[in-house]
Amino acid sequence: MIARNPFGHVGNFRSTIGWARWSRNIAFIAACLIAIGLPGYAKAAAPAGCTELQAKYPAWKGKTLVNAINPHTPGYEAIDPKDPDKYVGFDIDLGEAIGECLGFKLTYKPVTFAALLTTLASGQADIVISDIYATEERAKAADFITYSKVFDGVLVAKGNPKKIDGINMSMCGAAAAENTGFVEVPLVQDLAPKCKAAGKPEPTLQLYDNNANCIQAILAGRADTYVNDVNTVDQAVKANPDKLEKAIAVTIPYSVGIGVPKDKPEFRDAVLAALILVQKAGTHMALLKKWDLDVNNFKEPDILSVK
Amino acid sequence: MMSLFLHYLSLPYLITGIWFTLAVTALGLAGGLILGVFLAAMQLSRFWMLAAFARGYTVIFRGTPLILQMVFAYDALPQIGLKLSAIGAAGLALAANEAPFIAEMLRAGVLGVDRGQILAGQALGMTPSLLMRRVIAPQAIRTMIPAFGNETVSALKNSSLASVISVQELTLRSTQLASSTFDFFSIFFASGLIYLLLTTAVSLIQLAVERMLDLDRPPSEDRLSRLMPWYRAPLTPEPIGPKAAEAKSGPAQADNIIPYAASKDSRSTRADRTKRAETLAHNNVVVKVDGLYKAYGKQAVLAGVDLTVRVGEVIALLGPSGSGKSTLLRCINHLEGWDAGIVMVGGRRMGFNGDGKLLSPRAIAEERASVGVGMVFQQFNLFAHLTALENVAGPLRWVHGLSRIDAERRARELLERVGLGHRMQALPRHMSGGQQQRVAIARAIAPSPSVLLLDEPTSALDPELVNEVLEVIRRLAVEDGLTMIISTHQLRFADEVADRVVFLSDGTVIEEGPAHEVLTNPRHPVTARFLSVMEADKPV
Fold first, then answer.
1. What is the C-alpha radius of gyration for chain A, rounded to an integer number of angstroms?
2. Nearest residue of chain A to residue B17 (CA atoms)
3. Cβ contact, residue pair A74, B164, below 8 Å
4. Counting C-beta atoms within 10 Å of the first and last residue's C-beta, which end of chain A has fewer, N or C?
5. Residue A285 has what pLDDT?
6. For A212, which of B74, B173, B179 is closest by C-beta distance?
7. Please, are residues A302 and A149 in contact by the beta-carbon 8 Å criterion?
8. Is the pTM of this model over 0.90?
9. Between chains, do B172 and A211 touch, taking CB under 8 Å as contact?
10. Are strands A127-134 and A105-110 parallel, antiparallel or unpaired?
11. A293: helix, strand or coil
12. Residues of chain A contacting residue B177, judged by C-beta atoms under 8 Å apart
């Protein structure tokens, strides 16, 4: 239901004739091989250079680290509906690829979105890879290694009765559902004075603690819109095609980042170096395809760190 | 929808979540109980600092939301180096939150135990810890079970808040599953039903425990209570058959007590009395009260009382209500403190050590037991959860260290003597007032006290039950030569049994002398007026 059936591509491959098409499908094969199963993927060789990296950063080799996640975002991180004891998604795979490169394994700690960084700061987790946007504000609590661009979708009820087309004047008087701690929250709040100045009612904000609750708010008619990562919005529409729709995709000036503790710069540098190797080996791009995400999300890593 | 619901109801992922829910609940309740016991003990303590600390704790942890306490235990404690696992942190937070509620339950349970029973236990020389273990706790626990059931259900539901700190319990698993499958309602109906099954199980356990601890259940079904620490198997079975049936039909009939009216022939002649008085005058002093003064605020209850009692003497304390009779008796075995004066019993200064310092409650209890001051109360004050036999035998074992067999033999012997051989296994609540008071007398004299204090022993009895108790007391005086101080309104009884009468009014002894003399020929006008009011019962 979440991940597109990986074998869908195989049928495509069989019907293909000719070398030109064959070569075009090489990428598909790679994606399929990766997608066939997490265990198979995990046993694949680590990208070149990882051995050197482990020699340079030996502190985490052989360790098991804790990854704090908010597992309510199918495609990025959610439990596997077929095997609920496992977490699956793009972020999960990317984190394990980085871990494999540096020689550590990951276990997962599910927390609310708002608790991701506090869990990291309190030492209850070592790393946060959970589709969290790296903002200046959040960088006061953790250092970030950014790895993805952000495209938001505007989720509305079928037919978009309030004609909402983004976090703009169209949202005046509407009720927006958001998760506590989301970057969209202040953006909606900032609309209030503008709506008022234009003589329109202010938008109201309903705060929940996971995507499912935000989506339910629209299904129950309590909220008019939910603005979040476009993939999450697409998944919601896919699950309720006759009740929900995506109004529009908007660009938000943030990047998605991996959170690491501020007091461990060496770990931050090690993760950055590993991510670069993982990207160079093509794994990052392959994972985007595996999880049916827009390849335009791809971003070369940067570090966001504020005092 | 239905098939999805059943699918999620049986999904191992959710079923496993139950264990986390139960683990957090169990940690919370067990920890809360331990903490709660400490808190309740501190609040009931006579040291105000401890009580204040406990009060402060209660204010903070009862007054803040559990969800904040969970986050605090999980995220803030690591800052001071205490990094607990998620389950550990959730358990700690739940325990800290449950503790004040459990402490209040414990406190209410303890305070709910009849104060008279505690006094009786103290008078028997039971230390505070012994009283708690043998008298208060067994009764308090019975009354607290419904509240414990409530608390367990509430803790079980509250454990769902552990989902905010990543404990993989039922609620967290349900929300995660809902997020990844979008089957929102089937999942929450399934987990709701699981919670309902768990809380129903708690209710059933509560009902079962209540039933098992019910004292009125027939003993043959008494399985769990046999496992309880306070349970003592009877050494011989209670007699059944005609005698028991007879006892139910009317307690007075079955008792082989000679009616008090029949004891006229034993009334001593004036010559005998004079002779007895001369002998007693040479006996050792057993109780000596000197200038005893006690006041509540400005109102003096005892305004300088002097009293000397010799071995074998029977003293009748007379006087109007509020004249200080009860207070005087309670001061003699230091159940109450006083403001000035000295009380000596058996040559020991009750309640104080050699330097004149006040002893701890524990030391006073030990002193009461070793000096031997028995006490019988107006309201009987039997231990409500124990049979007649155990009421007598129990304190012998606990306080005086008798073996089970010896204690039981002594108890049987005494209960036979007070005419209750057929009621040994009866609970106090199933006995008449007269029977209860006779058990109380047996209990008080079981350790062979050097003096027995009786505080209006027949005042709470129905008129037809008075004589059976007076007869028991009379026999103790006549046959055993027991030293007794009896406060009473039974003038005829006082005339017959007492050697001396001490008349109290407004906290002072206004008249004192040989019983028959004072009763028939009072010198003080107050005594005369009191006796004339009591005309009906006045001796001739």
1. 20
2. A85
3. no
4. C
5. 94
6. B179
7. no
8. no
9. no
10. unpaired
11. coil
12. 79, 81, 84
Q: What angle (nearest 5°) sits at the alpha carbon of residue B351, between those of residues B347 and B356?
A: 80
Kindly determine whether residue A78 and residue B184, on different chains, have CB atoms separated by under 8 Å.
no
Distances (CA, A) of B264 to A183, B258, B494, B497: 100, 11, 14, 11
Partners of A81 on chain B (C-beta within 8 Å) are: 177, 180-181
- Residues in B touching A80 (Cβ below 8 Å): 180
Residue B381 CA, distance from chain mean position: 8
* Residue B25 phi, psi dihedral angles, 5° rounding: -60, -45
Query: Could you say which residues from 112 to 151 on chain A have a Cβ atom under 8 Å away from some Cβ of chain B?
Result: 112, 115, 118-119, 121-124
* Residue A97 identity: A
Q: What's the pLDDT tens digit per position in B260-284?
A: 443 444 445 667 778 888 888 888 8
A38, A88 contact by CB (below 8 A): yes
DSSP label of B47: -
Beta bridge partners, A258, equal A145
Residue of B166, B10, B173 lying closest to A86 (CA atoms): B173
User: A24: helix, coil or strand?
Assistant: helix
In what side-by-side order are the strands of the sheet with B484-487? B373-376, B451-455, B484-487, B314-318, B500-505, B508-514
Count of CB atoms situated within 10 Å of the CB of B221: 11
Whether this model's ipTM surpasses 0.85 comes out as no
Q: Are strands A64-69 and A127-134 parallel, antiparallel or unpaired?
A: parallel
Residue B306, classed as helix, strand or coil, is strand
Per the CB < 8 Å rule, is A81 touching B181? Answer: yes
Which helix H or strand E contains A96, and what residues bound it? helix A90-102
Number of H helices, E strands in chain A: 12, 12
Rg (CA), chain B: 30
Contacts of A167 (CB under 8 A, 6+ apart): A154, A184, A187, A188, A191, A227, A250
Q: Per residue in B384-435, pLDDT tens?
A: 999 999 999 999 999 999 999 999 999 999 999 999 999 999 999 999 999 9
Residue B138 phi, psi dihedral angles, 5° rounding: -60, -35
In contact, A257 and A147? CB cutoff 8 Å:
yes
Cβ-based contacts of B10 with chain A (< 8 Å): none
- β-pairing verdict for A143-157 and A175-179: unpaired
SS3 at position B451:
strand
CA distance B429 to B263: 30
Q: Nearest 5°: phi and psi at B493?
A: -65, -45
